[in-house]
Specification:
Blueprint: E1 17-20, E2 23-28, H1 40-53, H2 68-81, E3 85-89, H3 93-105, E4 111-115, H4 120-128, E5 133-136, H5 141-151, E6 158-163, H6 175-183, E7 188-192, H7 207-210, E8 218-223, E9 233-237, H8 239-246, H9 249-252, H10 259-274, H11 276-295, H12 306-309, E10 314-317, H13 322-334, E11 337-342, E12 352-356, H14 363-380
Parallel strand pairs: 2-11, 4-5, 4-6, 6-7, 7-8
Antiparallel strand pairs: 1-2, 3-9, 8-9, 10-12, 11-12
Helix pairs in contact: 1-10, 2-10, 3-4, 3-8, 11-14, 13-14
The structure holds pyridoxal-5'-phosphate.
Length: 381
């Protein structure tokens, strides 16, 4: 996430404690929601794969770049998301580009309606298709409906593109409503659920599972670089769609990924799939932090369904203005706690304080955070 004032270099593994610019901090930031990036099994898998297969295959998937690790991870992804097939891409950033292009080639839409709070990669991917891109206000159904009425010519089909879980504010896209609206025009939906996969839904399949919206009209792209403790983009779905992506330019035009990243992804997927306690701990910590903050009178935007809302490990809030939030941020830093003050997309012009709790945080660490935040607020008056 962008930091508007000072640059911090992370000089340790990520975890609940990190070293930034030579100083140790209790860490409530980032996106490693289960802290799997530092899990010994994930690190071992990456090391073993490098020793066995080297750094990478030095060729693209169009030639001899498909390795046993790639075949394995793609099978695992299809099984994890319960889809016909899945594909692993060089980065999550490229997922939207590859996915939107494939859906265009399949002739499934003529106009893209883009939630304007969506990630940069989706905006760029949408523009790259050459189709008209109509932005609508963040999670605003009325605006979407009005824009569809205005911009769809007779017989044209829409594609609604949105993040699933918005990473800055921790809000959810109302995917069910999008689906109802899109179906009226025989359209499709593209969800970039980089932050929702792994952590939301009974099986960890993300926002659409949590909202109970399985549909063959919803297409999913995401990443292994957050909850799964690894790196690389992912798209899961129907066989014909995945086939289009495999034969598309993103896959055939880039070197196949580093073996360490793929092996880490396989292990991360296994850990998340097998260990239900990870999600339980995360949800538990999310509720605990949320209650602590609400108790102090700090509120953030609510998502659509309260039961899900409580389980989201991102709690962002604005307090007065940018300069006050910087003061709070600096107070926390002085006390050895790092959380983000960010102006990343979705944060608004003054920015927000973004607090992230993970499954690895201990209750006592969460209490230390809320107590210190209370002192920071008191110090303002
Ligand atoms: C919503 C969203 N989509 C895509 C990406 C890009 O994923 P990656 O970093 O794995 O390339 C990010 C951020 O990293 C993101 O927040």
């Amino acid at each position: 996430m962008a930091h508007p004032s000072k640059h911090y270099t992370m000089e340790s593994r990520t975890g609940t404690k990190v070293v930034l610019n030579g100083k140790s901090y209790l860490y409530f930031a980032g996106t490693s929601y289960f802290q799997l990036h530092s899990h010994p099994d994930v690190i071992k898998a990456a090391n073993d794969a490098t020793l066995l297969y080297g750094i990478g295959s030095a060729t693209t998937r169009a030639l001899t770049g498909t390795t046993p690790l790639l075949e394995k991870i793609e099978q695992k992804l299809a099984s994890y998301f319960n889809t016909e097939d899945a594909v692993y891409l060089p980065s999550g950033y490229l997922s939207s580009l590859a996915g939107l292009k494939a859906l265009d080639e399949m002739g499934l839409y003529q106009v893209i309606f883009l939630d304007e709070g969506s990630h940069y990669s989706m905006e760029e991917g949408a523009t790259a298709t050459g189709k008209p891109v109509i932005p609508f206000r963040n999670r605003d159904l009325d605006d979407l409906e009005a824009k569809m009425k205005k911009h769809l010519a007779k017989g044209q089909r829409p594609l609604v593109a949105s993040d699933g879980l918005f990473p800055v504010m921790g809000t959810l896209a109302p995917v069910r409503d999008y689906l109802d609206m899109t179906l009226k025009y025989d359209g499709v939906i593209w969800v970039d659920d980089a932050h929702g996969v792994g952590i939301l839904g009974v099986h960890g399949r993300g926002t659409c599972e949590a909202l109970g919206t399985p549909s063959n009209r919803i297409y999913l792209g995401a990443t292994l670089s957050k909850a799964f403790g690894a790196y690389g983009g992912i798209i899961a779905g129907r066989r014909d769609f995945i086939h289009k992506i495999r034969s598309g330019s993103v896959m055939t035009g880039s070197s196949s990924p580093m073996n360490a990243a793929v092996a880490a992804g396989i292990k991360g997927l296994e850990l998340v799939q097998e260990s239900h306690s990870l999600r339980k701990k995360l949800w538990d910590n999310a509720r605990y932090l949320r209650e602590g903050l609400l108790h102090m009178g700090i509120k953030n935007e609510v998502a659509f369904i309260p039961e899900i809302h409580g389980t989201i490990p991102i709690f962002s809030f604005a307090h007065r203005d940018a300069s006050t939030m910087k003061k709070i941020h600096n107070f926390l830093i002085k006390q050895g706690i790092y959380t983000q003050y960010t102006s990343y997309k979705g944060a608004g012009s003054e920015g927000v304080l973004r607090v992230v709790v993970t499954s690895s945080h201990k209750k006592v660490e969460i209490v230390r955070f809320t107590h210190t935040l209370k002192e920071a607020l008191r110090s303002l008056s």
